Amino acid sequence: MKTIMENMVIDLIKNFTNLFDLSDQIVFLVDKNQSLLEINKTGKEFLHLNKGDKIDSYLNIDYSKKELSVRTKPELKSKFNAVELDGGNTLFVIKQVDENKKYFEEITSKLPIGIVVFSKNGEVAFFNQAYLDLWGIEKDDLINYNIFEDRQLNSVGLLDKIKEVFEGKPFLFLEGYYDSLLEKGKGYRIWVETTIFPIFNERNEVELVVIAHKDITEVKLAQEEIKIAKDEAEESNRLKNAFLANLSHEIRTPMNAIIGFGGLIAEIVKDKLDQSEYGFLENFNIGIKRLNRTLTQILELSQIDTGNYELKIEPVDLKTEIEKVLNDLKSDIEQKNLEIILNLDEKNKTVLADVPALNRILTNLIENSVKFTQKGYIKIETYPNLNETILFCSIKDTGIGISEEYLDHIFEPFSQEVDGYNRPYEGNGLGLALTKRYLDLINSSITVDSVKGVGSTFTFTLPIYNE
Fold first, then answer.
1. Which of 304, 238, 294 has its CA nearest to residue 430?
2. DSSP letters for 125-194
3. Strand intervals (E) in 187-313
4. CATH number listed for the domain at residues 314-463
């Protein structure tokens, strides 16, 4: 039977709950069996205890030092005063809770993230200033707020996810985040990134649920601007490539006729013109062919960039393709008296590639070696990787080499190490750009090693065909 003093204390706690709840100290009453009889709001928030709980199962109490700590966090100790009442009941008042609370509030107040903590019945247990600022609300707006009654969260499908967390179910949002465009309290809209996680008590029950909001509106707007700019750039590039493809096609048709007639005229008047006059005609034919080659490369580049190139991957004899290109360039090679060194792997000579693309790759690389090498040799070598799935093809020359500064730009369209009308070598700067594009099409790669004045080595890869 409770004494008058005990009843007075219990009545005091019950009837003056608001007074105790305003306190930063924990106040609770236990009976002689260490069962919790009453506890104020601060105590519930910090200790997560309920009436009927056995406090010795959750708390470490050192009566000699008057220190108390939660068993799961023994390093966090607080001083307490205890008043023993008749009948074996004890009234605890834990000191220095205000210091712990201020420390926690100070940390959360510095975070640029809105944090709100809910009790298991959906009421607000804690929030920081960033949470109020994020939603443009005041502290009083949260007094009677219950998250389970939030219509906006329900309308965006977030409330059901929150309820699952309260039930102890795993949080299912991808990577723990959720992006949603929500109405802000002051009338405008924001994008928020939301993280939700539960806090369990000693019985492994959900005691609290923490929701953290981060305003990512500026990030979203920036991403949207980038997307718009990217789409506009891609559309502009598509239109440019389509224009170049159509223009090149329209010019190439009469160009082929001019080339044909130029060759025919040269044959007809070959014996009727002196060497100087015939030289003019030869230069005309060379210029027309060069112009046609440039237009052809522009057309090929446009076809690849617009996705109009029809790729056909099939087994190809690499040695045969190399010999074809060398035969086409035979007169230029002989004119410079260059040595051709072939070191081709006979075992792995069949690769998977698109034949026209492979021909362009080999032509561009070998032709460049011939053009930029005045004396010495050109060495073409093939060799497989360890498990014989990839074949490396390297083309090495003793030419003029490439400066280290220019190597990063060597595969850019219309790029040349020496620009201007007085450059020592002719060319449009499309050959290596096309080579890289063709290799990308067949999922292959290319590397270059070069020393100015010594020479260059280009190495590309091709998948080996195994029957």
1. 294
2. EEE-HHHHHHHT--GGGGTT-BGGG-HHHHHTTHHHHHHHHHTTPPP-SGGG--EEEEE-TTS-EEEEEE
3. 189-200, 206-215
4. 3.30.565.10
> What b/e sequence results for 401-415 when a residue is b if at least 16 CB atoms lie within 10 Å of its CB, and e otherwise?
bbeeeeeeebbebee
Residue entry with tokens 């002989």: 334
What does the pLDDT look like over 339-390, one tens digit per residue?
999 999 988 889 999 999 999 999 999 999 999 999 999 999 999 998 889 9
| 3-state DSSP of 267-280 | HHCCCCCCHHHHHH
Output the pLDDT for position 439: 92
d(CA 252, CA 255): 5
From the number of C-beta atoms within 10 Å of its C-beta (0-12, 13-18, 19+), residue 50 rates as exposed
Mean pLDDT of the 46-60 span? 80
- Span 40-47, average pLDDT: 76
Instruction: Output phi, psi for 117, to 5 deg.
Output: -120, 130
C-alpha closest to that of 10 among 55, 58, 51 = 51
- 455: helix, coil or strand? strand
Instruction: Give every CB contact of residue 419 below 8 A, 6+ residues apart in sequence.
Output: none
pLDDT beyond 60 at 420: no
Q: Which CATH architecture has domain 226-305?
A: Orthogonal Bundle (1.10)
Provide the 8-state DSSP code for 55: G
Are 162 and 211 contacting, i.e. CB atoms less than 8 angstroms apart?
yes
Alpha-carbon radius of gyration of the chain: 41
Sheet holding 339-343, edge to edge: 339-343, 377-384, 390-397, 455-463, 446-451
What is the C-alpha separation between 171 and 40, in angstroms, rounded? 31
432: exposed, middle or buried (C-beta count within 10 Å: 0-12, 13-18, 19+)? buried
Across 237-241, average pLDDT? 75
Q: What are phi and psi of 338, to 5 degrees?
A: -85, 145
- Tell the CATH topology of 111-215: Beta-Lactamase (3.30.450)
Please check whether the two domains, 4-97 and 111-215, share a CATH topology: yes
Q: What residues does each domain of the chain span?
A: 4-97, 111-215, 226-305, 314-463
Higher pLDDT: 219 or 273? It is 219
**Considering the domain 4-97, what is its CATH architecture?**
2-Layer Sandwich (3.30)
Q: Which helix (H) or strand (E) holds 81?
A: strand 73-84
